[in-house]
Design goal:
- This protein is α/β, with parallel strands linked by helices.
- It contains 30 helices and 22 strands.
- The strands form five sheets. Strands 11-12-10-13-14-9-17 form a seven-stranded parallel sheet, with helices on both faces. A six-stranded parallel sheet has the order 3-2-6-7-1-8, sandwiched between helices. The protein has a five-stranded antiparallel sheet with strand order 21-20-19-18-22, with no helix packed on it.
- The longest helix has 23 residues.
- It binds a DNA duplex (15 and 10 nucleotides) through helix 4, helix 8, helix 17 and helix 24.
Length: 759
DNA sequence: CCTGCCCGGGTTTTT
DNA sequence: CCCGGGCAGG
């Protein structure tokens, strides 16, 4: 095996990336440019040619599925098992490290991981305990703020309370973190943040981890957030052998704190990195690439790429207008059946993509009606099902009796006579005695006196006894037997019958419980400890459950589709308000992100691409409202499109809302909205958007329209230095500036010394 | 004091 | 359309 083995069949750029020398390397990889091959071969090359022991390599992927694939590809290249090679998502890798280091953070090593549902449940508990009205202050909104803060590495103490809402958030944040600790639980964000805090806080530990990892590789680098960036930075130091692969055009996780400008930051942070551009596409036809480019070229502030392929033009892209979402689904199915007959394609060659999970319903219905096999990625997936979460809560409580969220979930499921009042009394007792849930249950088990009423005490005692008996079974290691004992003792299957509307529903839910039992059985066969099994269950992503080779059409959101490819792709619901999603209009850079999402969808297709929209769409059953074709359709080159004359003519009307509001638009056509803006009359849609932007406190209401700060203008600020305007809000009073050194900041237009440099 | 029923409200994307 | 919360009956 020689060096060329790992670069065989690769193009010059790919080979250069695979065999790049030590130090920072940035690979800008367009879609379909073979980045997975590059990453896996790089790892194999490092192990074989550079003699780096495989356990001293860390590779971060975006999903567990990608991690599994990467591991097996590396193993196939090297013909050897690679146990100890750290491949996984940021979350999974941190969870593993923290399992070992938990104690230095004041956690126990058997800590549990709270997923988003658990997080919401805990925030709700905390909000109620603090006497805050959850109707006035939406727990999900509060959680969102907390999560953002954690992603920016801002703790509860440093959290700035600028207004009443953020003061509430600060309070909840503080109490929420305390509650997590009391429950010996970390949420998703804690996994990353705690790891950073740990490494920052201890020279010894930091040295140990830095020593351990000779080199760090990161996939989908454009979707890293601040904590993740920091983590990579710390772990890769001091030798800075850091190899990142990314594509700014595929950044679709800003809502989760991801910042594609980390790619730019990387170039500034590491002196003189090796930069490699992968532009040769091995996936799609030229027509698909041309359409993709037409989409993404509308985004500003990006490194232009020139994707090309040897595969020829291929067929044109089909655009279809359906009457409503049901017809749209029927159309998709018709095309699938036809292509299967004519082109000899299999079901697994097709994928149907949509912006929101809710859109899958109509699609699923059509697949069921036509008895066409499909797999649904995400949605109300297996792990989110009530019955599965219930049973997992039992397992988690057995494993960690302090787990408050799990306790509250199942203490009365199935109903065992412990209602709201009894639970409140119990929790009061726990709080006043300064105990954890587990300690209280322990006291009950040993028949210690409690302040509870006799009736309530009896019921809680019975529960504590049951829990203890399961814990005994768990100790002996017979987990499947224990599982069966839980369902038997609690009469869980009967409970499912009682709480289901239809017998079929009960049967389906019972199946889900049995499937979880099967997973547990499987885990035991591989001698996986319970805590590991539970951690794995919390960290599964929707797409992770997607198996290859199933004879079925794949249905999924555009987000889930990232990193995948299919011969035939349908992107449905190309309507204003759906793609781009209406929420995006309120967000800074929102439309650009929607466009990237569309771009990701388009570039999943290998040979055929179908774009569809409905004339009328019902969000939930009943009526439905008229919709308008997505503005993105108007951007597509007409000579590459196929469709009925009426549909194609319609696209002319798909006026781009964004180009209407783009203030630096240099095109000659002056839209109505632009004129309106200039004459200071605001259209309904515009005022609707504006009204949702909450002005900063202390801003004078008078509007100023003659702002010198236009999008794209270069500006200077006495404190923040030089930067570029990327957005203007509130009629020019607030300017969003991307500063060269400090990143994005919002500045008041009349701030002292804040000036425009050109014009 | 618990359970079942009804009504109203809210719905992007995910590790 | 589905969930969660509030209310009345048991």
């Amino acid at each position: 095996m020689n060096e060329h083995f790992f670069t065989e069949g690769m193009n010059t750029q790919q080979a250069a990336a695979i065999t790049a020398g030590a130090g920072p390397v940035l690979v800008l990889a367009g879609p379909g440019s073979g980045k997975t091959s590059v990453l896996t071969r790089r790892i194999a090359w490092l192990i074989r040619e550079q003699r780096i022991p495989h356990h001293r390599i860390m590779a971060v992927t975006f999903t567990n599925k990608a991690a599994g694939e990467m591991r097996s590809r590396v193993e196939a290249l090297l013909g050897d098992r690679m146990r100890g090679l750290q491949i996984g998502t940021f979350h999974a890798i941190c969870a593993r490290f923290l399992r070992r280091e938990a104690e230095s953070l004041g956690y126990r090593r058997d800590y549990v991981i709270y997923d988003s549902d658990d997080q919401v449940a805990l925030v709700k508990q905390v909000v109620k305990r603090l006497g805050i009205d959850p109707k006035k202050f939406n727990p999900r909104a509060i959680l969102g703020k907390i999560s953002n803060a954690k992603n920016e590495m801002i703790g509860p103490d440093e959290f700035q309370s600028l207004d009443y809402f953020s003061e509430i958030v600060k309070q909840v944040y503080t109490a929420y973190q305390a509650a997590l600790r009391a429950a010996n639980a970390m949420d998703f964000d804690d996994l990353l943040l705690n790891m950073v805090l740990l490494l920052r806080g201890s020279d010894m530990l930091r040295d140990a981890y830095q020593q351990r990892f000779e080199t760090v590789l990161v996939d989908e680098f454009q979707d890293t957030n601040s904590v993740q960036y920091e983590l990579v930075k710390i772990l890769a130091a001091p030798q800075n052998n850091v190899f990142v692969v990314g594509d700014e055009d595929q950044a679709i996780y800003a809502f989760r704190g991801a910042d594609y400008r980390n790619v730019l930051r990387f170039r500034e942070n590491y002196p003189d990195p090796t930069v490699i551009l992968l532009e040769q596409n091995y996936r799609s036809t030229q027509n698909i690439l041309d359409v993709a480019r037409a989409v993404i070229d509308n985004n500003r502030d990006r490194t232009p790429k020139h994707l090309h392929t040897d595969q020829g033009r291929g067929e044109r892209i089909t655009v279809f207008e359906a009457y409503d979402e049901r017809y749209e689904a029927e159309y998709v199915l018709e095309q699938i059946q036809q292509l299967r007959m004519q082109a000899g394609l299999d079901y697994q060659d097709f994928a149907v993509m949509y912006r929101t999970n809710a859109q899958s319903r109509a699609m699923e219905q059509a697949f069921v009606n036509q008895s066409t096999p499909y797999v649904l990625v995400g949605g109300v997936g297996f792990y989110k099902r009530r019955e599965v979460k219930d049973m997992l809560a039992y397992l988690r409580l057995i494993h960690n009796p302090d787990d408050r969220v799990s306790f509250e979930r199942i203490v009365n499921v199935p109903a065992r006579g412990i209602g709201k009042k009894s639970l409140a009394a119990f929790l009061d007792w726990v709080a006043h005695a300064g105990m954890t849930i587990g300690e209280a249950l322990n006291r009950l088990y040993y028949d210690d006196p409690t302040p509870l009423s006799t009736a309530a005490e009896k019921k809680f005692r019975a529960f504590a006894d049951l829990l203890s008996s399961w814990q005994e079974m768990a100790k002996v290691g017979d987990l499947v037997n224990m599982f069966d004992n839980i369902t038997a003792q609690t009469r869980y299957y009967m409970h499912l019958d009682d709480t289901s509307n239809l017998p079929e529903e009960a049967a389906e839910r019972a199946d889900n419980v049995r499937e979880l039992r099967g997973l547990l059985e499987y885990a035991l066969e591989y001698e996986q400890p319970l805590h590991e099994f539970l951690a794995e269950q919390s960290l599964v992503a929707d797409v992770d459950t997607l198996k290859d080779g199933a004879e079925a059409v794949t249905l999924m959101t555009l987000h889930s589709a990232k990193g995948l490819e299919f011969p035939v792709v349908f992107i449905t619901g190309l309507e204003t308000g759906i793609l781009p999603h209406f929420r995006a209009f309120e967000e800074l850079d929102g439309i650009s992100e929607e466009r990237r999402l569309f771009y990701v969808g388009v570039t999943r297709a290998k040979r055929s691409l179908y774009l569809s929209y409905a004339f009328r769409r019902a969000l939930y059953s009943g009526g439905g409202t008229l919709s308008r074709p997505s503005e993105f359709l108007a951007d597509l080159p007409r000579h590459l499109l196929d469709g009925s004359p009426l549909t194609l003519a319609n696209l002319n009307k798909a006026q781009s809302l964004e180009s209407q509001t783009r203030w630096d638009d240099s095109s000659s056509s002056v839209s109505r909205l632009e004129r309106d803006l200039k004459s200071n009359t605001v259209t309904p849609s515009d005022s609707k958007i504006r009204s949702k932007i909450i002005p900063f406190p202390g801003i004078k209401p008078e509007a100023k329209n003659d702002t010198p700060f236009k999008v794209g203008a270069n500006v200077s600020h006495p404190k923040f230095g030089r930067g570029k305007v990327i957005g203007v809000e509130n009629k020019g009073e607030i300017v969003s500036v991307l500063f060269d050194d400090l990143g994005l900041k919002k500045i008041l237009a009349d701030a002292d010394g804040f000036t425009a440099l050109d014009e």
